[in-house]
């Protein structure tokens, strides 16, 4: 159990260090917090915050480009002199406090939180923020495997707020959204919150991509809902991330990959973020849609040559708001060079062109690529085995036999479905995807 900290500034002794959240500025500080600042012998923080106490007699330690050098000097000074670190908003909300605690330990720190820019923005907008997702892009250089994760947040029906920096500007965010086909959002930019120059803009992503804003900004992205959407079922909200029943998709009776087979196929695809997936013979798009919901893929190319099934595919992509899926009405044999080479391929149907389609897949799969095919006949299975055994791929086959319960009188019985073969071929030169 934690002891009650001594919050009397008159009893303050080094090496205890105080971290003060400034909120939106000096006017947000409480009398208690100001009493701690009054007793400080050293004030540390960004130039803007230190300027608020230009007449304070304490030594000023300005945040340096080299954060390690700043921390080193701060650690040394605070060991002997009463030191306050001035931080933006709430110092534990994507702020400096996390790193200070890790470096100095909890016993050396007392923190005074304040309102965050997110709270202030939603107060200005008159909107609740208990359901907001906050994503920090500030100073982030995420690995390729995570660089599209924040786009997945935008594809969700939630409100999303972005903490920006000089690289990840509002225009940069808007441009990435448009590249991913996400245009149906309200794009809010708050400039200079708490300052006399404060302005809040409501824009479309297209408008935001053409504008420049103050370096002190915050971005909020809201879903746009029509009256029709608010009165009808919203599959993208109510459906599970994985395991959507066949009834959840618009499809031609009997021509859909069953939920259980879909789960096995997705497991064998070994999906990872930022990959390109081809779904050939996509039908209603059930595999493409579930794949895009469980991992932030770079792009999904769903190809279906039957016009009626293609219309079902378009409807399902719209229904589940899968902006990364590019639906193509045509023959997989006509795949052109403008379509990126795949990291993963799912073949749900070949329309009698299995050999030619497999040749295209084997030629264009990237290093470490995986192709997964479902087959219901022995002929299709045998042809696939013969093909892959002549290629530099590791082959595996799984048979899926599903029995579903159906009512019989007042009890249940099991009804068998046709067995399905799931054929997986992994390129032996595994490369970057492993």
The secondary-structure class comes to: alpha/beta
Order of the strands making up the biggest sheet: 13-12-11-14-15-19-16
CATH fold-level name of the largest domain? Rossmann fold
The CATH architecture assignment of the largest domain turns out to be 3-Layer(aba) Sandwich
Mean pLDDT: 88
Q: Note the total helix count.
A: 15
Radius of gyration over all CA atoms, rounded = 28 Å
Q: How many independent structural domains? A: 3
Assembly state (oligomeric): single chain
Question: Which class of the largest domain in CATH terms?
Answer: Alpha Beta
Low-confidence stretches: 226-233
Q: Main attributes?
A:
single chain; 434 residues; alpha/beta; Cobalt-precorrin-4 Transmethylase, domain 1; Methyltransferase, Cobalt-precorrin-4 Transmethylase, Domain 2; Rossmann fold; seven-stranded mixed sheet; five-stranded parallel sheet; 15 helices
Brief synopsis:
The protein is an alpha/beta fold and 434 residues long. It has helices spanning 31-39, 47-51, 67-78, 97-104, 117-125, 149-155, 170-179, 205-208, 227-231, 235-238, 259-269, 286-294, 307-319, 354-364, 378-389; strands spanning 17-21, 42-45, 59-62, 83-87, 109-112, 133-136, 160-163, 185-191, 199-203, 217-223, 276-280, 299-304, 325-329, 344-347, 370-375, 393-400, 403-408, 411-416, 420-427. It contains 15 helices and 19 strands.
């Amino acid at each position: 159990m934690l002891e009650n900290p001594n919050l009397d500034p008159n009893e303050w002794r080094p090496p205890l260090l105080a971290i003060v959240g400034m909120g939106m500025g000096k006017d947000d500080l409480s009398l208690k917090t100001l009493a701690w600042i009054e007793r400080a012998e050293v004030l540390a923080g960004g130039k803007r915050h230190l300027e608020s106490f230009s007449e304070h007699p304490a030594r000023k330690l300005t945040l340096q480009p080299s954060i390690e050098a700043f921390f080193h000097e701060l650690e040394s000074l605070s060991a002997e002199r009463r030191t306050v670190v001035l931080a933006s908003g709430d110092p534990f909300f994507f702020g400096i406090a996390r790193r200070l605690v890790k470096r100095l330990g909890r016993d050396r720190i007392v923190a005074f939180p304040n309102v965050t820019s997110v709270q202030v923005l939603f107060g200005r907008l008159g909107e609740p923020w208990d359901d907001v997702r906050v994503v920090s892009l500030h100073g982030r250089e995420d690995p390729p495997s995570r660089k599209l994760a924040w786009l997945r947040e935008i594809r969700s029906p939630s409100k999303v707020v972005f903490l920006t920096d000089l690289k990840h500007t509002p225009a940069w965010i808007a441009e990435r959204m448009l590249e991913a086909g996400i245009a149906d959002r309200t794009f809010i930019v708050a400039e200079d919150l708490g300052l006399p120059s404060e302005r809040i803009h409501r824009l479309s992503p297209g408008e935001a991509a053409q504008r420049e804003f103050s370096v002190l900004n915050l971005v909020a992205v809201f879903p746009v809902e029509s009256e029709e959407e608010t009165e009808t079922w919203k599959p993208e909200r109510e459906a599970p991330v994985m395991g959507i029943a066949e009834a959840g998709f618009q499809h031609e009776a009997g021509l859909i990959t069953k939920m259980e087979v879909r789960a096995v196929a997705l497991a064998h695809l070994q999906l990872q973020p930022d990959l390109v997936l081809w779904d050939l013979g996509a039908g209603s798009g059930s595999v493409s849609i579930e794949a895009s919901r469980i991992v932030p893929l770079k792009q999904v190319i769903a190809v279906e040559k039957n016009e009626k099934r293609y219309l079902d595919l378009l409807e399902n992509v719209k229904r589940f708001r899968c902006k990364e899926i590019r639906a193509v009405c045509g023959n997989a044999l006509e795949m052109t060079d403008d379509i990126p080479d795949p990291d993963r391929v799912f073949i749900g149907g070949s329309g009698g062109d299995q050999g030619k389609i497999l040749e295209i897949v084997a030629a264009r799969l990237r290093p470490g690529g995986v192709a997964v095919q479902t087959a219901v006949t022995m002929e299709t299975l045998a042809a696939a085995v013969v093909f892959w055994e002549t290629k530099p791929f590791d082959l595996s086959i799984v048979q899926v036999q599903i029995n579903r319960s159906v009512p019989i009188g007042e009890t249940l019985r099991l009804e068998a479905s046709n067995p399905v073969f799931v054929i997986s071929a992994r390129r032996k030169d595994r490369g970057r995807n492993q």
